[in-house]
Amino acid sequence: MREKILAKGSVALAMGAVDAGCRCYFGYPITPQNDIPEYLSAALPKAGGTFIQAESELAAINMVLGAAAVGARAMTSSSGPGISLMQEGLSYMAGSELPAVVVNITRSGPGLGGIAPTQGDYKQATRGGGHGDYRLLVLAPSSVQEMYDLAGAAFALAFRYRNPVMILGDAILGQMKEPLLTGATLPLPDPPAWALSGARLRQPRLIKSLYLQEGEMTAHNWKLYNKYEAVKRQEVRVEVDCPPRCTLVLVAYGSCSRIVRTAVERSRRRGFAVGLIRPITLFPFPEAEIQRAAAAAKRLLVVEMNTGQMVDDVRLACAGTGAVYFKGYPGGEVPTPEQIEQEIERIIKAEELRRWRN
Amino acid sequence: MAELTKKKVFGRPSSLKESAFHFCPGCHHGVVHRLVAEAVDHFKLADSTVAVIGVGCGVFLYDYLAVDCCEAPHGRAPAVATGIKRVNPDTFVLTYQGDGDLAAIGISEIIHAANRQENITVIFVNNSLYGMTGGQMAPTTLPGQKTTTTPAGRKPRGDGYPMQMSELIASLPGSVFVARAACHTPAHIRQAGKAVRRAFSAQLEGRGFSMVEFLSACPTNWRLSPEEALRFIEEKMIPVYPLGIFKDELT
Amino acid sequence: MGRVIVDVERCKGCGYCVLACLKKVLYIDLNRRNRSGYPVAAAEAGSSCSGCARCAESCPDVALEVYR
């Protein structure tokens, strides 16, 4: 039954997971994501599910692995330091082709860092921060509504591709409150055919990632590669707002993209032809949309709350077409629309000056 | 051929697959595999068991035991087993772990699984060192015992004292059955089989965490003949790792 | 009267069965190797096996079947 409520981002995400059929959560306390386990510690038992606060993120991700092995929709959430501890487990789950949803409410780092919002875990998330040839699918919400909606989408993707899916939020998204329209609760899906359950009237099944026989691992790597190629072809989600004759397109995701949007709207009112591309999936990355914008506008400005990570992917996507500028705000510093407007003006004016001189 | 009228009194348990073991000659992993398979047969659990397998010489349990199996990262089997059992309590969940897996990297997971009284059964093979990786020191290595990483013999001060896991786990209120057995004589093996069945009962009765530790020969890495390895268990290991039932709340 | 049958390809010649047998029925036949090159266990001809199965219980390769 859909209802409209005022909800905190982390709670919205947890509600979205439960509504999408998640019935087990294994986590560990770490700021700034504690609202998720706190909410689920009451909600899951009420829904007949399982909630465990594990002894560490190492244990938590492995409980997720076990629950996934029996076909459950399992979830965990953490922040930078905890997500780092989970990397081996994530690599095992990718290698064992197990679905799960892992939430990173990003804080500042490296090390203990701080609890302020940043986007400093982009590369860890999108390059699959563990060992071996694998990727995580990564979704980047930028509103409380998307925190809710993408939780459901993450489970659907995880089970479709039998691979862990990461939701990359940050401390702003986790802590802010906005109106939320909840969706219909989905019926509980049956465990998939590959799930372990006890070999009743069938051959025993095996979930593993160890391949020692000649050529087995190579074949498995190419199998996973093809999976990720299919993900790239079919699962890109991106918001493109580039009116014709744009002379500069900004690229930003997550809560940072909201600030950039304000700057873009104000700049347009002052006569600047600027566009905005907001990746919603960070893997698969919207390469085609970025390439088209670069070809048309010739100039991109990537704005991130870090010292430059997604900008590398933007440069790769452009492959030399157009100029890629970067403006970074690491360590918990949150940019203001005015700062970004000045950056827009600086780049466009410099371009006009250059053209006037030639 | 009068003999064929005789009755078979001993043979391979049905849940033990046909494939021969890869273990070294005299390695007791094979005995532990058989005892587990016999208990699975005894309680007719082959169609409800999910075995969670740690990383070590025992990692190929799925090639030998005809049950659903899930591989766990090194040391994390108790956590994986927790996820499985909590989500699907109808499954019979056991972990199969060596001393490196359970007592070193995985000591946090085993303690907390017991502390939460998870209704799982842990099969713990203690051969006093890391077998698969070539004989390095483990937390269970004996004082003075030479391994590839304690060439001059293990010095407790600095290398650590032998970790007595059964006593440690038995001290936790969440554990309901904990026993340590050995495999160096037929009588001890029979005793070990009884302990496995009792540990299985603890889970089947929903009582909570059970564990059986097996002192197990590793002739290759102990640099002993199989026969000498049996004596090593009797004369060297048992004094440090006394056998017996450390907790039994199944009355 | 008992009888022991050795699964030659499972046996690795570790000798545990020989040690376990109270009637000294079994020995490791150094002249007979299985496909893996291990010398395999064998029962003395006309021996007094009681079918107690101590050998099979000690076998780490579950290579022995015992009849009585």
Descriptive report:
The complex is a heterotrimer of chains A (358), B (251) and C (68). Chain A is built from 13 helices and 15 strands. With 358 residues, chain A is of the alpha/beta class. Chain A has two domains: 4-234, Rossmann fold, CATH 3.40.50; 239-357, Rossmann fold. In chain A, the strands form three sheets. A seven-stranded mixed sheet of chain A has the order 3-2-4-5-7-6-13, sandwiched between helices. Chain A has a five-stranded mixed sheet with strand order 10-12-11-14-15, sandwiched between helices. In chain A, strands 1-8 form a two-stranded antiparallel sheet. In chain A, helix 1 runs parallel beside helix 2 and helix 3 packs parallel to helix 5. Chain A is globular and about 80 Å long. The model of chain A has no long low-confidence stretch (mean pLDDT 96). In chain B, helix 1 (29-42) packs across helix 8 and helix 4 (99-105) crosses helix 5. In chain B, 37% of the residues lie in helices and 20% in strands. Chain B has 251 residues and is an alpha/beta fold. The longest helix of chain B has 19 residues, at 186-204. Chain B has helices at residues 29-42, 61-64, 77-87, 99-105, 107-115, 156-159, 165-170, 186-204, 219-222, 226-240, and strands at residues 8-10, 49-53, 68-71, 92-98, 121-126, 129-130, 136-137, 175-182, 209-215, 244-248. In chain B, strand 6 (129-130) and strand 7 form a beta hairpin. Chain C has a single domain (3-67), classed as Alpha-Beta Plaits (2-Layer Sandwich), CATH 3.30.70. Chain C contains two helices and four strands; from the N terminus they run βαββαβ. Chain C has helices at 16-20, 54-58, and strands at 3-6, 26-33, 39-43, 64-67. In chain C, a hairpin with a 5-residue loop joins strand 2 and strand 3. The longest helix of chain C is centred in the N-terminal third of the chain and has 5 residues, at 16-20. The termini of chain C are close together. The model of chain C has no long low-confidence stretch (mean pLDDT 95). Chains in contact: A-B, B-C. The interface between A and B is large, with 39 and 35 residues.
